[in-house]
Design brief:
- This protein is mainly α and 159 residues long.
- The protein has one domain.
- It is built from 7 helices and no strands.
- Helix 1 crosses helix 6.
- The model has no long low-confidence stretch (mean pLDDT 92).
- It is found in: Membrane.
- Keywords: Membrane, Transmembrane, Transmembrane helix.
- The chain crosses the membrane at residues 61-82, 89-107, 127-147.
């Protein structure tokens, strides 16, 4: 796929900014031994509320959810920052963000204990970032600017 210089810069900046956000959020959780998703899960709303509450209240499930969340964020972020396995990282990130959105959907009439930092109606920042990851998935750049470039160079056929 060919990109204009401006298009390539925009896509790489989007990938790096999204990667940084995932990586930083993950590392904050990984480096804090007291961090848990329990309060967030208990604050869930929407039609999957009972599933998220079950995760929070199940002593054998919660540590797995916490581990997958913290390390998932970190590894997805690294993938996007380094430009390695970016399409897989973008898919994993979209799945994780979908879970975040479904646990706290921006639907009218759902109140949460923890206030959001804005007013939302259906579309919130979580969904916007999910769409950004879809763009990163659809228009990959790691084969041009990223570690994947080295694999792409090895796999190019001589003309």
């Amino acid at each position: 796929m060919k990109y204009s210089k401006t298009g390539l810069v925009a896509l790489v900046v989007l990938r790096l900014a999204t990667g940084w956000h995932f990586f930083y959020e993950g590392m904050v959780k990984v480096l804090n031994p007291d961090w848990t998703s329990k309060a967030y899960l208990l604050d869930s709303g929407g039609f999957l509320k009972s599933m998220f509450e079950w995760m929070a209240l199940n002593d054998s499930v919660l540590p797995v959810v916490d581990f997958l969340n913290a390390w998932g964020l970190t590894l997805i972020g690294l993938s996007l920052l380094l430009g390695i396995f970016c399409r897989a990282g973008a898919l994993a990130g979209m799945l994780l963000l979908l879970f975040y959105y479904l646990s706290h959907p921006a639907f009218p009439g759902i109140e949460y204990l923890f206030p959001t930092d804005g007013s939302y109606f259906i579309i919130n920042k979580t969904l916007v970032e999910l769409f950004a990851l879809f763009v990163i998935f659809a228009f990959p750049t790691a084969h041009i600017i990223g570690v994947e470039r080295f694999w792409a160079a090895k796999n190019r056929r001589p003309e």
